[in-house]
Amino acid sequence: MADGSRILIVEDEPTLSENLYGYLERQGMMPDAAYDGHGALALLRQMPFDAVVLDLGLPGLSGLDVLRCMRRESGLWRPVLVLTARERLEDKLLAFDLGAEDYLVKPFSLAEVVARLRVLVRRGQGDASGPLVHGALGYDPSSQTVTLAGLPLALPRKSVLLLEVLLRPAGALATHARLTAALWPDGPPSDRALHDQVHLLRRRLRAARGPDIVAEPGHGWRLAPISSRPGAGENET
Ligand code: CA
What we know:
Blueprint: E1 6-10, H1 14-26, E2 30-34, H2 37-46, E3 51-55, H3 63-72, E4 80-85, H4 91-97, E5 102-106, H5 110-124, E6 132-134, E7 137-140, E8 145-148, E9 151-152, H6 157-166, E10 174-175, H7 176-183, H8 193-207, E11 213-216, E12 220-223
Parallel strand pairs: 1-2, 1-3, 3-4, 4-5
Antiparallel strand pairs: 6-7, 7-8, 8-9, 10-12, 11-12
Helix pairs in contact: 2-3, 6-7, 6-8
Calcium ion is lined by residues 12-13, 55, 57-58.
């Protein structure tokens, strides 16, 4: 599939970097590779990448340092997919605070990297008003209508607002903070209010055989991949 997205891979592990590079290339993307933080920043200054795959555990300048520099230096920001080892999972919180859009825990499938990157690139190219689609689920921001397999799905107002955040982009983490801000600009009425709203939307989507909503305990929620079976992500917290 022709794609042409320019992707910067920042990964110090040579085999993983090569595998990623080869796979992205076979998907029609245009990858470039950096093996440490300074190399990554140098390439970011030279080329307008569509997205960055950023390992957090880098020698010298860490992935988090790279994120900080990207934020500080004007014009350097790109959508970032963070890669992190399981034992460094706490770093992902810091990465989100620094603006990373999504993360994957090693080991991950190459197909999943590409799927997540495509979402980031689409969002980065910023069609804010166009219809949002996730499998059979559709949402048209201009009319604020939700459809499932082409049929209208009537949802309460707050469920629609919640769904829109989960769809921007579909499958990426929607943090508690983003969801709360979308639903209650002046602050939530109670600590449980957001959980209650997510439960309500999840019930409605399940009843309509739509995608599931998966909890990322302590962080937020994301729409389940469309390939996953209904009932996955049952263990809500
Ligand atoms: Ca590493």
